[in-house]
Specification:
about 325 residues, alpha/beta, Leucine-rich repeat, LRR (right-handed beta-alpha superhelix), 2 domains, 8-stranded mixed β-sheet, 9 helices, LRC43 protein, LRR_dom_sf, Leu-rich_rpt, leucine-rich repeat
Amino acid sequence: PGSVSAAFQDYLQHLGLQDFPCGLGSWNKSRCHARRSSRAQPAGLEEAVPPGEESPEVLLELLRDQHSPWALPHDCSPQAQRLREMVVLAPELLHSSRIFQLVKSLRILDKGVEEVDEGLLQFQQLEELILSANHVSRVTSAHLPRTLKVLELCYNDVDDLQDLCAQPPPELQHLGLGYNQLCGPSQEKHLTVDFWPNLVSLDLSFNSLTDLLGLVSQLCTLQSLRILLLQGNPLSLIPAYRGFLVDSLPKLSILDDIYIWPDERQQFQGLARQPELIRSEARLVVSIGEMKGLPNPTDFQQLELECEGPVIACSYYVTYQF
């Protein structure tokens, strides 16, 4: 599927919502007909189950029993189980848009999704959208439900935030953009309180951001920010990187998955007022330990002195690809 909506339809089909014991069929057709009737069932009286049909309790047991052939695998989400149970109790949900109102968390991982389409607006109660390991390069914010609090886009192809920041969800608390293709310094302007007033957690790890001073000047406006991931960017190689961030963002609690303790904050106090320490260069030191299985070049040197015959010379080199 190329879009989120198409992937969701595949997800529903995978859950078997149209098939026994969910959906509508000979096993529950009279109950569905009774729901459409205008005559209400008297309180306290249970509806009799016609011959050949199953009660909701029996159908639910078939879904919940781990030994049942209709049980979901153990790695399925709790939401998948709730959706199936809701369709058992109310089969008419399958034939209306109400099914979208039941979804608060949508996880579509590694399904080849390329587009966050307008169909996502049908999820009017959606709070969490996880689209990791897909092929999304652009996110049109007008297609995101306003109720969204978590947006995870790690391992995608996002290289620009302009479309995402046009009308971003106002209540968003976590934005995950790790392992994408963001390049500085043009993207820093999109990471301010004007776009993300309630952002608590931001993951920008393993992109190509290079302007530490420019990025920090924008992140300083995010007063609710407590968790920040920047590891894997070129700017994280700057020697004063961690200390400068710790002192520049006093409300930050976790940087690159490491908790900021009070003594560390005290150690770097005042570093934010010394931007001249932030140089646009980095030094990378690589140490090679023991290497096994290779002939020692000194052995050949000794052999060359003692032997009059032809000598095979061996040399080795190491390459680093960045």
